[in-house]
Design brief:
By secondary structure, the chain is an all-alpha fold. The chain is built from twelve helices and two strands; from the N terminus they run αααααααααββααα.
Length: 321
């Protein structure tokens, strides 16, 4: 029944105007995921540190859990299950690995739906968040790279972790000791999860001499998520205990400078340090360190420079205002 639904959507996609196909190709692409990740960084660095911290936590925990579920059930993609399904030629390039649950749906829901909940007393943020989440989720069906249950569980997964992380953040904010407990327990659970994902058996099936899903590639994705969560947890703890930068009364000029500085720092670390880690430790463990350091820079490294930046270059404008 799920595959029949995808076949009907495939007929609709093939007969849709070009602009409709372009829209859903964007919503289901890595570019849309990049937009969803820029928003927490923009909030965290420039406008509302607490909201950004919350979105980063929700993304980190839900992504790690998604990898556990995905690599436990090992469900093949729709076109593997039924050769009549022909996914979008662009979307299929980023649709490697197992299908259930959808990582795009989970990531979008954990960040956007979470921020919709955070700003629930306002009108437009929840509306935009819900609409964007649903469109991204549906786009994965429309493009033929996920079954309906994949995106449904992905959205539920993201929303559940958005709520759990909201409660977790409220609890951790009460004291530095509680924040350290979150760091410690989160790291231990991540390590245990990696051990499980590394030693568990995976199905290895071949078609025309090629493996359908390479377990080694799946492990790389697991280690990426583990690195991201570890970097977020460590960075948020260090920032809260030692850095404590502010986002109140930050002007447009300083916000632009912070965004540019943070993005450049994260990009340089991701590319240069990432290449070094890959060379030293190989693809799997290298990705772990690469993503851990990148998200540590996002959550603590860049904010370390924000206070001196503000004091040095924007003190005069603040004083005038």
């Amino acid at each position: 029944m799920d595959l029949e639904f995808l076949l009907r959507l495939q007929e609709l996609r093939n007969s849709s105007p070009a602009f409709v196909q372009t829209l859903f190709s964007f919503l289901g692409s890595e570019a849309a995921m990049a937009v969803a990740m820029v928003i927490p960084c923009l909030l965290y660095w420039c406008y509302d540190k607490r909201a950004g911290r919350y979105a980063l936590l929700s993304f980190g925990f839900s992504s790690m859990f998604n990898q556990i579920v995905k690599n436990t059930f090992c469900v093949y993609r729709p076109w593997i299950r039924d050769t009549r399904i022909v996914p979008d030629s662009v979307a299929i390039k980023g649709a490697n690995g197992y299908s259930f649950p959808s990582g795009h749906a989970q990531s979008t829901a954990s960040v956007m739906a979470g921020l919709g909940w955070y700003y629930r007393k306002l009108v437009w943020p929840p509306v935009v968040a819900i609409l964007f989440t649903l469109l991204v989720a549906f786009s994965r069906n429309f493009l033929g790279v996920h079954a309906p249950q994949d995106v449904l569980v992905g959205v539920v997964e993201g929303c559940v972790f958005a709520y759990v992380c909201w409660k977790l953040m409220e609890w951790a904010e009460q004291s530095e000791e509680r924040a350290f407990v979150v760091l410690l327990v989160g790291t231990v659970l991540t390590v245990v999860s990696l051990v499980y994902l590394t030693i568990k058996p995976y199905p290895v099936e071949y078609v025309n001499g090629e493996v359908l899903v390479d377990p080694k590639e799946m492990l790389v994705s697991c280690y990426k998520s583990a690195g991201a969560l570890t970097g977020i947890l460590a960075g948020l703890f260090v920032e809260g205990a030692y850095i404590r930068f502010e986002t109140g009364n930050v002007g447009v000029a300083e916000s632009a400078a912070r965004l540019l500085m943070g993005a450049l720092m994260a990009l340089v670390v991701h590319k240069l340090a990432g290449a070094l880690f890959m060379e030293l430790f190989g693809d799997t463990v290298g990705e772990l360190f690469k993503y851990a350091l990148t998200f540590f820079v996002v959550s603590a490294g860049a904010p370390f420079f924000f206070r001196p930046l503000g004091n040095r270059f924007f003190a005069g404008s603040h004083a005038k205002s």
